[in-house]
Amino acid sequence: MPNDRSHSQSALGRHTLAEILSQPRCWADCLKRLGSEERVREIARRFGKAPEWVFIGCGSSYYIALAAAASWTAITGIRARALPASELLLFPDLVFNGAKKLAPVLISRSGETSEVLRAAQLLNEREIPTVAISCAPNQKLESLATASIVLPEADEQSTVMTRSFTSMLLALQYLAAALAGKNEFLQYLHALPTVAERLLQSLPITVRGFVDDNTCSDYVCLGQGPYYGLACESSLKVMEMSRTYAQSFHTLEFRHGPKAIVSGATLVSFLLSDTNNDAEVEVLEEVKDLGGKTLVVAKQASSRARAAADLITELDCSLPEPSCLAAFTLAGQLMGYYRALHKELDPDRPVNLSRVVLLTD
Description:
Elements: H1 4-7, H2 14-21, H3 23-36, H4 39-47, E1 52-57, H5 60-76, E2 79-84, H6 85-90, H7 92-96, E3 102-107, H8 114-125, E4 131-134, H9 140-144, E5 147-150, H10 163-180, H11 183-199, H12 203-213, E6 218-223, H13 228-242, E7 246-249, E8 266-271, H14 277-289, E9 293-298, H15 303-308, E10 311-314, H16 330-342
Helix pairs in contact: 3-10, 3-11, 5-10, 5-13, 10-11, 12-16, 13-16
C-alpha cells in the first residue's frame, strides 16, 4: 500500500491522503463488524417487510443515499428512493403523500448534522420507526433512531468525507443483501477491499501526474443509474478540496445542453456501467470529438473507451454491479486531493466548510 511520503512531500492534506489510502483496510474492518454484530439482523427482523425504503442525508450523505437507494432496489427488488433531509423538512407532504409504510434510513457521518436530526424528530413525531447509520459512537442521531449502525473505523479527522462515504455505502449494501438473503452478494462485498488495494498501488501516482500535466478550469463527472450519486460525490470532492467549480449530470443528459461548456480546458469524468456501456461510451466519444479531456472509470474498459480516454482507471475485476460501486469513487477523491495540492491548498481544511453543519434552533 502506498504511503503519504511516496505521493506528497508536503504536510498539506496528510490526513485526507491517509484516509483515502486506508479505505481497503477500513472496508474489511467494517464488513467484519457488520458480520459479527446483532444490529444488522435486528434491522432485518424489524424492517424486513417494509414495502418502501427512503434514504435521507445532506451533502455527501445525500449522495450516499442516491447510490444506496439504487443499490437497494437492484439487490432486494424493493422500491427505494433518496431525499435530502431539507426536502423532508420543507415539503413533508410531498414525501408522505400517498406513501404506505416507509422504512427511513438517516445518514450522517457525525450523527450530529442538524437537518438530519430534525428529520429524525419529524419522523418520530409521526411515529415512523427509523434506521440510522453514522461513524461516531454515542451521538444524538443514534439516540433518536429506532435502530442504528455505527462504523467507528470509518470516522475521519479531515473535514471532507472519503472513507466514511464509501464505508457507509458498503454497509447499506450489506444490509440490503442480508435482508434479501443474498449471501453471494455478501461475498462480493468481502472481495472488494482486495480490488481497491490493488488499484491504489498505482492510482495516486497516475492521478497526480495527470493533474500536474493538465490545467483544467471546468470539471464534470457523469454517471447513470447507481453511478449517478457517485458522480455527484466525485464532483463535490473536487469542489470541496480544491475550490474548483465542478458539476455532475446523468451521462446521457450531458448531451442535452451541458456539453456546451466542453473545451480543451474541460475534464469530463465518466463512471461507466456494464449494463449500458455502449450508450455511455457514445457520449464519451462525443466529448472527445469536441476537444474535451476525458477520464474513464470502469471495471474493464472496452477498446472504444480506451481510444476516447485521456486517463483510464480500471478496477480489473469480475465483481457484478452494484457490488463494486464504492471503488468507483477513488479516482474522484484523488482528483480533488491532487488538484488542491496543485493549487497549494490544504485538502484537510477547506475554506468556508466545517466538519459538521450545525444550525441554531
